[in-house]
Amino acid sequence: MIRSMFAAVAGLRSHQTMMDTVGNNIANVNTTGFKRSRVLFQDILSQTVQGAGAATPELGGTNPAQIGLGVRVGSIATHFAQGALQRTGRPLDVAIEGDGFFVLDQGGEQLFTRNGAFFIDEQGDVVSAAGGRVQGWRASAGGVVDTTQPTEDLNLPVGDLIPPVVTSEVLMGGNLAADSAIGHVERSGVDVFDSQGTAIALELSFTKTAADEWTVTATYGDPPTAVTLTDDVVTFDAAGEISSPADFGIDIAAGEIPGLGAVVIGIGGPGVSRRLSQYGAISSVSVVTQSGSATGSLRSVSVSKDGVIVGAYSNGRVQPIGQLATAIFANAEGLERVTGTNFRASVNSGLAQVGQLGSGGRGGLAAGAIEMSNVDLAEEFTQLIVAQRGFQANSRVVTASDELLQEIVNLRR
Question: What is the average pLDDT across 53-76?
Answer without folding.
Answer: 87
